[in-house]
Amino acid sequence: MKEKIKFYDQNMGIPDETGEAVYYYDKLMYVLYDAPVCCLHFSDDSQRKEEIALHEIMRNLPQYVFFQCNKATIINFCHYKGYNKVTRTVTMNDGVKFHLSRRRVTAFKSMKNSLPRLSPSCPACYTCTKNDCANRVIFCRYVKSGGSIKK
To answer: pLDDT by residue (tens digit) across 113-144?
Structure first.
């Protein structure tokens, strides 16, 4: 039996030949499903292929920043660049484009407008190493805990 991806609070563990590789959610740009394999694309241009259902991944990802565009694609709004409403195409930061299902247009616009407003980073954020990263607040422990960090 093949071991599945393990999801934690702010990251996911994926088994590999050396043990378990850990990836933070903000590094996952999008997931493409081609039955029975999901291909996870990360911001460092790496990819991982895993035998897992797309709905299983979506169920475990943070719903406030990951969105299922169509029956075969999940995107991370941290890496979202733009949307063409005429062609219903979502463009990611790396230039890759995905078709947005007609039934998901309203939910997409609603989620896009409800994303947390980006604010200056704080020392509690541990998922991004860049001080000027605009996406830090989305995965920030301080913001998610309501202003108090439990150590």
So the answer is: 877 654 444 544 544 555 555 555 555 544 44
* Residues of each domain in the chain carrying CATH 2.40.50.1020: 6-114
The distance of Cα 24 from the centroid of its chain, to the nearest Å, equals: 9
Residues 80, 70: contact at Cβ < 8 Å?
no
Superfamily (CATH H level) for 6-114: LytTr DNA-binding domain (2.40.50.1020)
Q: Average pLDDT, stretch 56-78?
A: 91
pLDDT winner (highest mean) among 75-79, 105-109, 117-121, 128-132: 105-109
